Queue: 2 jobs
Job 1
Amino acid sequence: MAVQPAPIRLSLTDLHESVDDPALTSMTLLNELAGRYPEAISFSAGRPFEGFYDVDDLSRHLTTFRGYLEDEIGLPMEQVRRTFFQYGRTKGFIHELIARQLEVDEGLTVDPESIVVTTGCQEAMVLLLRALVRDERDVILAATPNYVGFIGAARVAGAPLRSVREDEGGIDLEDLERQIAAARREGLRPRACYVVPDFANPSGATMALADRIALLELARREQVLVIEDNPYSVFCAGDSRLPMLKALDEHRQVIHLGSFAKSAFAGARVGYVIADQPVTSDGASSAAPVLLADHLAKLKSMVTLNTSTVAQAVIGGYLIENGCSLTRATAREAEVYRRNLAATLDSLNSVFAPMPGMPHGVSWNAPTGGMFVVITLPFPADDDMLEYSASKFGVLWTPMYHFYAGTSGFHQARLSFSVLTPEQITLGIERLGKLVQDQRGKRLTPGAPDSPR
Amino acid sequence: MAVQPAPIRLSLTDLHESVDDPALTSMTLLNELAGRYPEAISFSAGRPFEGFYDVDDLSRHLTTFRGYLEDEIGLPMEQVRRTFFQYGRTKGFIHELIARQLEVDEGLTVDPESIVVTTGCQEAMVLLLRALVRDERDVILAATPNYVGFIGAARVAGAPLRSVREDEGGIDLEDLERQIAAARREGLRPRACYVVPDFANPSGATMALADRIALLELARREQVLVIEDNPYSVFCAGDSRLPMLKALDEHRQVIHLGSFAKSAFAGARVGYVIADQPVTSDGASSAAPVLLADHLAKLKSMVTLNTSTVAQAVIGGYLIENGCSLTRATAREAEVYRRNLAATLDSLNSVFAPMPGMPHGVSWNAPTGGMFVVITLPFPADDDMLEYSASKFGVLWTPMYHFYAGTSGFHQARLSFSVLTPEQITLGIERLGKLVQDQRGKRLTPGAPDSPR
């Protein structure tokens, strides 16, 4: 019998601490839980609706994009081939189409040279956070609860985050001012503030127009950049749509993160960042400034070289086929999300409103769009309770405290309705109602033996 | 006339120092130079040969991969669609096909679960370097001259590099031992050593079998991991092909970086890392270890979430269509590279051997494969000389000192012949000969007025 040589062994304590980050480890556990209860109705997946996907579309998008290169750009065959197959421009090659989309959908004119096409919005966050944190004094502010991908990007980029309160109307501007002042008193440099102005993930909060303007004024006064992440505004009902922060930005204070994950498709991993801020190389205004986008591109050349050409071509074709309008491209999906939001709010009303003793302890917000509703429960909504909910009642949700880095949200759950049917939503909320009844029963009998906490 | 509001201004000194890294800034300048002299014959591009690319192949690869999911894996339509369009498995979905390719081409059996599919080999380097550097004591050894992408990955990941000498036979093992000892005396922890064992970029060096075995023994004795990067061995002539380090690795000391950039195509941005090292979470062998691959996947979930599904599907289809053999898939390219290598060496011989006073001062190495030859010149081969060479003689090459982080190689140039025809190679080397004659003339007339340095 051959003796198997002993492998080398590494210790977790010898690896960078970000591999063991509690928030991300929790998300991994949540995914595993969803895998263990495949029959449960899942309000935890933040994935886009997939009912309209068709694999045949991909080849058509490639053909459309090829036609664009040949006919509209007028590239000779050899350069078309090079565009598809070779290492390419670090900032990407669909920047003109993205600029056109922003013009069509948002009335926003941006210099295509200020756009860096990235491997999903996630890479854009990493590049930006890596660039903005020069030394241990630099700190990034973020409206909290926070998108878990932004927390992860900050961990891997080594960027310290500082929480700013968020309420139904988005980031709390008074708290932002307080946090900036507090950071400065501690000798820190607040560099930028991260916000999701429309239907934030996970809170569903949306900022009013006056607050958007006030945020930009505050940022200008305090010389802090604004990082705008806005993947959901495209799903807003037409009339109620507010201008993006970047569309209100007169002083190039806003760095805008864009995503095609919720519009075209998530697997493509194509996003972008608009970084039109001039960067001077010696602080003197005489030196010709380059754009922050070009510095981010240098970092990108060290992380992924360039965004996959095939993925860019597919997204490029998708944009062209839809007249460079994401609003037009996602009309069917937007209808599904509006229908599902209504079904979620209706079900919450019909299950919880008539429940005896309610509304004490159970409440929820009512966003006007997006993919998420937050419910507050009369008992701790933690990982143990989630497992109990999945195993005993067949319903999954996401504990909110993960999005607060474990400092708040202990009684809250995020309900994501994007991939469900209205029937599943109704059934899922009914199951959630049974969990609440079950827990109320336990609270009436103190010391119940199998309480999950 | 509307007054344009003054934009916010950032200063380069407020951004992370990696955006201003000298090696990468130089590479950007070199690319610009190539753009300014489009008619020059360029020995500087390290791009793969592009003569066999056909845009129609992409859709066929997608169809092939779809057939594999449906027929071989047996996925129902809904899951096929999800694989193409949704967020996916962080470690990727072509890991089984990659494992099959390694079995077919290298006789290497790897657990597919130890493979992380990455956004090109570049992302794999970043993830790995980020994971291995826990604190300021950790240091990575690297055979030098060094692939500029590895230098870049180290900069962005914050991993300090320490150079180890390399000669015609690859990494100098005595120097490696010396550097490990020196690092330990300084209180540092050498974690891993980076090598390209076959036809290294930029040196063209190849390690003999005995040296490969000795490297693994040294690494085991010193408890240092080996990072193997091997994109060129597939282009080795059949009989002379040596086993990869990973194929000789009995103790799981080797972390193998894989790339499809030089075989399938660079734009796809699909690579991978094999990281089958067990990681214990408390140092005790009783705790069930997880693979290093799973920790790298956690970092990947913070950098790009997953590798583009479309890009993976295209590479998957390419592998399937070629019986999972890269040797078979790249037979035509390998023939081109062998032909071009021969043309380069022949031209160097015919231009420089008969030159009066030669071989004094001009010499070159003679790799048996790969994409690069290194020439040593009797004058400084720096960026100024390169511009002079391009403007006056119409020939571009890459100054080698960039790959030594500016510590050596001042008289050397890398000649990359991968994208040229034999006719262009002959003409280019003749032009290089004229540059040498020109510089010899200047040395004979001291104080010549327009000397480029």
Job 2
Amino acid sequence: MNPTIETILQHRSIRKFEDRPLSDEQIRTIVECAQAASTSSFIQAYSIIGVKDKEKKKKLAELAGNQSYVEHSGHFFVFCADLHRHEQIGEMEGTDVSGSLESMEKFMVAVIDASLAAQNASLAAESMGLGICYIGGIRNNMEQVTELLGIPSHAMPLFGLAVGYPAQQTDVKPRLPFEHVYQEDTYNTDETSYKEQLEDYNKTTSAYYHARTGGKRADTWSSQMANMLREPKRTGMKEFVEKQGLAKK
Amino acid sequence: MNPTIETILQHRSIRKFEDRPLSDEQIRTIVECAQAASTSSFIQAYSIIGVKDKEKKKKLAELAGNQSYVEHSGHFFVFCADLHRHEQIGEMEGTDVSGSLESMEKFMVAVIDASLAAQNASLAAESMGLGICYIGGIRNNMEQVTELLGIPSHAMPLFGLAVGYPAQQTDVKPRLPFEHVYQEDTYNTDETSYKEQLEDYNKTTSAYYHARTGGKRADTWSSQMANMLREPKRTGMKEFVEKQGLAKK
């Protein structure tokens, strides 16, 4: 096992950080690593906003559903899908690019680009001994986050990334069975084996929670997921995305 | 600079591979690394299909726009956004999860999850001395790719990942200026400095192409982008995504 694979396999989310900011050099390395990721046809359709302003961090922590580790992170990055610069390029080059920018295809490209960059950033941070936690919670309040950070048309915040010196130890969570996530040549549409794999995984997660909570909790993954998915969340997302000029057609 | 950061910064896409398949052990390590990535609220909303069947690889190469390195890769992975298993979980748990599964929010979660996993897979492969290339081209023919791989409702292919032993040397491409991609506290909406950064980058890319092609080519990034974005591509994407039961509301 090489050091990169070791870093990857040791990942666990960290939600408590030391009161110690990242240095500008650390921030630069993390961002440069983000930028080194693959990008669809060289489009580079993302931006990263690093939040240092204490009031803004506090506000973002609230908007993300009172996640204090947003405020008390060593640095808080917001990853944005960003086709705004391509809108500007259209102007610079006198080319009408609006049809492309408003397409579902380019929205997907921007979300994928931003995510590949973010995962590079995460691994770079973790390889330096820092801890990370993705913050989807900023999508609870898209309008406010977008306004707070001054994000223009054809761009939108996707998720935050809290980074800092870990002040807690957490466990690596067991993932879905390999055979369930990875299939060869064709998707497994055999319902029996498919559901058996999920039942097996339920035993794994149940044992994991049982051990971690001293027997207080032993819920299965499928019950967790069913509870989480019962009520649709962030129901205004489609309207918001389209209002930003993305995924309209 | 540690080995993980070194791996990250050395990335360049490889489009020519030795005729040498990946071992099952390599494939397993790559997938396990993919699975170790963060996942929104533990939802694990993606699947990976590894294509070994020679006829299918050939067909996928055609469907991706005759990209021969899809066929002649050491292994070809297809990363899928996948909420199909959550549909099955809804059945198992007797819970109506359809509203969640059809939401734009959960579509974004699935695309982000799949992308984080793919970037882990890419870095794991690169750290082992393998080369990679993301293949967005499979989105040229979504219906056929989906049918060929038997991908069910609430799931869809997003991109391929060709992996193999490199049979070419390529350069690291210069990225957008750090200051353009990374901003502090607020998005840079000062049009003058914003466009100056793009002009600077045009000089960088122009010099890069000039050097690489012995003076035959010296196009700027903004002209490349304007040309690429002039005509919308993959215009049926929104209909396709919605037909799969995703991003409908």
